[in-house]
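At this stage, I put together a protein sequence along with its fold in token form, as given directly below:
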Amino acid sequence: PGVYGVGHRAPSYKADLAAALLYAGPGAALSHGTAAHWAGLIKERPATIHVRTPHKRMPQHTLTLHERAPVRRVWHNDLTVSTVAQILLDLAATQPSRTVRLALANADYQGQLDLAELDSVLGRGRPGSTVLRAALARHLPQLAYTKSGLEIMFLELCESAHIPLPETNQYVAGWEVDAVWRRILDR
């Protein structure tokens, strides 16, 4: 309501996100799974757009508003998003542990993981803190190199069986392989 697109016929995901931010008002930022997807921390695009805002607004059909003041935000690909630490905490409050671990690995891979900032958002009684602490304790940077859910499950299987973790999606003799243990190949 009150946000209109003029001058084009083909709506885009980015336009939907921009409209959600405009509706949420000044100081709003993408949050939760929406921000994680936009920042490249998770691959799956959430069905509902999540926005953190310092204003009271009526929720809409495909828009979930999270009221919080003040909202710390950064620019990413021309839109405002919550900080990476806040995104990870929001994910931990709403998503399965596997998703949180994958987002954590992707943030680390992209050089966006700031442990001091992450520690500043964790707190007793804050939703997601327990799950995020557990994900940090079991942080597995190799998850960022996977290309499928099956590869993620394979790394988790190796981890749970205490098998040394392989390198994933590496080239061996000109072929890209899903997993390789180079120490075994060197023997």
Notes: The chain has a mean pLDDT of 88.
